[in-house]
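Researcher: Next sequence.
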Amino acid sequence: MENCQLFHTFAPMTIDRDILRIALPSIVSNITVPLLGLMDVAITGHLGAASYIGAIAIGSMVFNVMYWLFGFLRMGSSGLTSQALGRRDLQGVVSLLVRAEVIALVIALAFLLFAWPLRMLADLIMSPSAEVRPLFHTYFNICIWGAPASLGLYSLSGWFIGMQNSRSPMVVAIFQNVVNMVVSLFLVVVCGMKVEGVALGTLIAQWSGFLLALGLCWKYYGKTIKRYRLTPDLSQRGEGRENLSVFFRVNRDIFLRTLCLASVMLFFTSAGSRSGDVILAVNTLLMQFYLLFSYVMDGFAFAGEALSGKRKGAGNYVALHATVRRLFRWGAALTVAFTLLYVLCGQLFVSLLTDDGQVRAASADYLPWAVAVPAFGVMAFLWDGVFIGMTLTRGMLVSSFVATLLFFALYVLLFPILGNHGLWIAFMVYLLMRGVIQTFWFRYVSKE
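Model: Next structure:
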């Protein structure tokens, strides 16, 4: 009987079911996230002036970067929570939730306190035109009040995933988009507002999503939270002090790793911009191939976070390695599928995104790099999920740092010779090296 139970636990179909149970709702959530900004742009596109679109585009980018830098609130919560759940440490699970929400609130209050300097910094970096600047300020001054909700939702989403629950974040993401669409349209079309109506719609959607997430948290875990309320785990002595040290170490590593990723992505865009408007447009369009693949693979990375963390917390390393193998089989299958899709439909996809003949023609020269994205990037996406779940954040930081150095070194060497192809080669090597280094890191840790 015991052997039968063991076989059932590690059977490939059982592991696949666990992976898909978390991955599929996460994919839906990932796809809906950019719709908040897309809906704002779509509404302002009918206000009669390009300056409205520019203001919303700059505002959305500024807030996306601000919040992305603090993505450790989600990723750190996910890995630590899944491990605590695997240990059946419900006290630790509740403490992690409260701790993450408190830190999110502190960061959000700092955003509100330094809102004016942040807005001035955004002006300096983005350099909006005289027409766009006041509209951007209006959008920023309203949406900054959504910081507590957005960062609080980051922490809650990570905690949900750590609890093996990806459906709640999916429900919240869909709900946010519906609220944003309905409220923004009402304020703009019915009430006659312009940028302020779009900003208020976004703000209301952010707070509505956060409140819904709190409600779902209480609905599903309220009894556990009431039973395992805060105790000396948050103290500065003994085990509580050690747990707090691990919490900040994990989040520090993830934050620094995010800075590496942000530097590469921002430089990729700026390098394309320096090559002229056509190359900038081509790189922007082809980067959508990367984003589409990332939306799907991040869903499986989230599954890796939840399941690998839980297996590690339970000390079940046989199940952990079985889960990692199944994740990479899914990754291989999706890599083949996306590569074929991009080979067969890549030019059609570009044509749907633009009707500019010059951009279409130029994109044909660089399309093979977009086709290669799945093969070069799949390991990095999946290992990120596994490493977050196992809280091997130092490995993530080291791999990202080394890959980032290689990216800039190759760009300096190759761009003068190959131009934009040199930029794409540097980016491909950057993706590949993250995955390669993490592979060796995982093997080293596994031997220990």
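Model: The radius of gyration is 22 Å. The chain is about 90% helix and 0% strand.
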